[in-house]
Design a protein that fits this description.
The protein has about 210 residues and is an alpha/beta fold. About 45% of the residues lie in helices and about 15% in strands. The protein contains nine helices and seven strands. Helix 6 runs parallel beside helix 8. The protein is globular and about 50 Å long. The relative contact order is 0.13.
């Protein structure tokens, strides 16, 4: 059964799919095409592959006329898993074929070791075709210290609190901004975000 540590980042994406645009632009300088809507869609890759191939989440950016302009396969990876280097290209290729638009593979990793492993290019065997995941490790998560931004992007603020809450220079401001973000969340969502962040904070961050 997937753990809360795996499922909560996916819940962030489902609650606010726009956060993938923020991460693409700020962490990897990916300029998205003009779009009108953004939503999560089915991550099932059973169209072209066995049914056990399913991406964690898929976000689709589209125009009002229904034309898809960009998609993101969003994966959460907490540990090294060599099998993912075979399944991730399946997720990417299948979603790209199904939605018929440019597609990126984004992998969120909570620790540096997993992030370094995940960012290695995947050699597919086809000449000049290697898939390089766009990794969001602790170093790629935006540092959110502005309370206004935290209230506007509570999911990004939660990730920031986990990644940077223990920093000596900005950790306290990051945590205070996250506390502000909780004020704008629905009553059934705020406690979940709070507990997820508190459970994952380092000892240094808990001391603030």
């Amino acid at each position: 059964m997937p753990s809360a540590e795996h499922e909560l980042p996916l819940e962030f994406v489902r609650n606010n799919p726009e956060m993938t645009a923020v991460l693409l632009e700020e962490a990897h300088n990916v300029e998205l095409p003009d779009y009108d809507t953004v939503q999560t869609v089915s991550g099932d890759c059973a169209d072209l592959a066995p049914k056990d191939y399913r991406g964690d989440a898929v976000v689709c950016f589209a125009k009002r006329d229904g034309r898809n302009v960009f998609a993101v396969v969003f994966e959460v990876q907490r540990d090294l898993d060599s099998r993912k280097r075979f399944s991730w290209p399946v997720y990417h290729a299948t979603v790209r074929a199904r939605l018929e638009c440019p597609t990126a593979l984004m992998v969120m990793c909570p620790n540096l070791a997993t992030a370094e492993w995940a960012r290695l290019p995947i050699d597919t065997g086809h000449p000049e075709y290697a898939l390089k995941p766009l990794v969001i490790g602790p170093e790629e998560v935006p540092v959110v210290t502005d309370p206004d931004r935290a209230r506007a992007q509570p999911e990004i603020s939660a990730l920031s609190a986990l990644a940077h809450g223990g920093r000596k220079d900005t950790g306290e401001d990051v945590l205070l901004a996250f506390a502000e973000s909780l004020c704008v969340l629905p009553a059934d969502r705020g406690p979940i975000y709070h507990d997820y962040v508190v459970d994952g904070l380092s000892k240094t961050a808990r001391a603030f």
